[in-house]
Design a protein that fits this description.
The chain is built from 4 helices and 16 strands. The protein has about 350 residues and is of the alpha+beta class. It has a domain of about 230 residues: Alpha-Beta Complex (paralog of FGE (formylglycine-generating enzyme)), CATH 3.90.1580.10. Strands 6-7-10-16-11 form a 5-stranded antiparallel sheet. A 4-stranded mixed sheet has the order 14-13-12-15. The chain has a 3-stranded antiparallel sheet with strand order 3-4-5, with no helix packed on it. The longest helix is centred in the middle third of the chain and has 15 residues. The two termini are about 15 Å apart. The N terminus is likely disordered.
Length: about 350
């Protein structure tokens, strides 16, 4: 069977690449393709596992190919500019379905964490939280507004503002390798849209279900590494009581701590991360395909325009950074402990 993937390269040149798909009974029926660098072509095959083969074109015209197995932790970028395009990871599908949320036997399970079964297609997600350096490119392009701590004339401006909200955090707010904070859900969506237009790829925020699935990386424990927040003497995250130098006092660089089995860093602690969904207390009412709740249509709600935050923060206790914990906030809320990471749709085009 042959399928055409319509691809718009980062240079703005359209191309169509023929992709051969071989079906295997033990895996999901689709392989997904993407570009790396520019202009670039791609080819994908499904064999004994979900595999994508990335073809990149060097400046001298030489073509290089490398396979990426979904869930292997191998990253790719959609352009050569490392300050522009974030590193992305291919997340395997859950064709047979997967359970998310907190199982009934766990103490302090919240209503918003009740078990939900979803079937997810393969997608890509950021290896790291979006950094200050990456977000600044969007601001420079005029597509994103300044973060709260750099807003001209604002009370929270880190240099001129009268409020010490961000000033006390210093370089951990402004440093290029630290997570961008002081951005709203609207800001995060604007960044993803800009990145998509810049690269020609379908960037967005991850759905609520996608975020938890990628954070768990195949586990059903409280955290991806197990149930205790600090196994033995090993520090795994930044949170109040996690044992890191940033606990309760500051944000950590996006590259801090060990990655989970699929290559994601800082899915527990550090900064809260926006997801695409409108918040609904009943986690089980979400879409079966794991897609985002893109309408504010929750049957029971006490405020409009609330969106889901995931992952916890260095300023919150460990119980808030569980894989299943969901918080809610207004779409225009900004805070020194709130950032985001991006996702990317990997689907064949209809052209």
């Amino acid at each position: 069977m042959r399928i055409d993937f319509g691809i718009l390269g980062a240079a703005g040149k359209a191309c169509v690449v023929a992709v051969a798909v071989v079906f295997a009974a033990v895996v999901a029926p689709w392989a997904f393709a993407f570009t790396e660098g520019e202009p670039g072509g791609v080819q994908a095959r499904v064999e004994s596992a979900e595999v994508v083969v990335v073809r990149s074109v060097a400046d001298d015209g030489a073509v290089k190919e490398r396979p990426i197995i979904a869930g292997s932790g191998t990253a790719f970028r959609d352009c050569k500019d490392q300050d522009l395009c974030p590193q992305m990871l291919v997340v395997p599908s859950s064709e047979r379905g997967i359970e998310l949320g907190t199982i009934e036997t766990v103490e302090e399970r919240k209503a918003a964490e009740k078990v939900r079964r979803v079937t997810l297609q393969t997608f890509a997600i950021g290896k790291y939280e979006v950094s200050v350096g990456e977000y600044e490119r969007c601001v420079a392009a005029g597509a994103c507004r300044e973060p709260e701590w750099r807003e001209a004339g604002g009370q929270f401006n880190i240099e001129t503002g009268r409020n010490n909200y961000y000033k006390r955090l210093g370089g951990n707010v402004t440093g290029k390798t630290f997570p961008i904070v002081g951005v709203s859900w609207d800001d995060a969506v604007a960044y993803a849209l800009w990145l998509g237009k810049t690269t020609g790829q379908a960037y967005r925020l991850p759905s609520d279900a996608e975020w938890e699935y990628a954070a768990r990386a195949g586990t059903r424990t409280t955290y991806w590494w197990g149930n205790p927040e600090k196994p033995g003497d090993k520090v795994m995250a930044a949170c109040r009581g996690c044992g890191s130098e940033w606990d309760g006092v500051n944000n950590a660089p996006v590259t801090s701590f060990a990655a989970n089995a699929w290559g994601l860093h800082n899915v527990h602690g550090n900064v809260w991360e926006w997801t695409a969904d409108y918040y609904c207390d009943d986690f089980r009412s979400g879409r079966e395909d794991g897609g985002a709740r893109d309408k504010d249509d929750c049957a029971v709600r006490d405020a409009p325009e609330l969106h889901v935050l995931r992952g916890g923060s260095s300023f919150y206790e460990a119980r808030f950074m569980k894989s299943s914990t969901r918080l809610r906030q207004d779409h225009d809320f900004r805070n020194f402990s709130v950032g985001f990471r991006v996702a990317r749709t990997l689907v064949p085009s209809t052209r």
